[in-house]
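Case study: Sel1 repeat protein.
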Amino acid sequence: MKINKRLIYRTLFTLVGIVILGVGGFMAYLMIPSGFQSRQAEGPKVLTELLKMAEESQPFNPDPYISSTYRPGDPLYEPLLYIQRHRQGLAEELLKPLVEQGNADAMYWLAQITYRDNYYSGGPAAELFQKSAELGNPYAALRLDSDNYECRRRMSSYCDQKWGELGRKLLQERADKGDKKAEYYLLQYDENSSEEVHKKLEKLVTENAKNHYYQPLMRLVYDYTSRFYLPFLEQDEPLSAEKKN
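Here is what the predicted structure looks like once written out:
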């Protein structure tokens, strides 16, 4: 049988070319920043409206609960206070009666603080997340999304794409009614890494801060100082003193 060496060489060269292109493309992905990353590299200065407010020294608000979701007198105020103070047992005692009363947010928080208790706690917690989601809590639904790492790890038999879809649907409904917090969390599922998406993020960070919800701002600053915004190969480079200031 006559071997066609030319065909063999051509095939080998083609395969080598494909490998080189693949490796080159992957390296470019790791090294070249996206529009989102380039915008974030500019740091907190992109939050021009917030900086302007700070420069103008907006009047101090004396309300100690201005940034709190729950206030004294709200059924969830004390349980959440205990959670923040890492006193889970006391929080559970206060949450369980609320769960029995059908409080969707209490179900979410009880599940949130118990799903990692032990090997068997994932199931009961997942059932609480389900009930909470069915009662309209989008954050509970998203905890059971099949894309959620913690769900796959701790509650795998309950994870389903339908919960992620429900969570995003509920967030969208809230966002359509002007809920900026919901709009911010909805943006986290936008896979577009363009500069325009980052500008939308900046706007939502600003609007949430004006509403005294500062988690998005803290997250943006953390991402900047931790350098997660950089291409993968540059993330280990320390932040310069100039940029820290």
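For the exam, be able to explain this: The CA atoms of residues 171 and 182 lie 5 Å apart.
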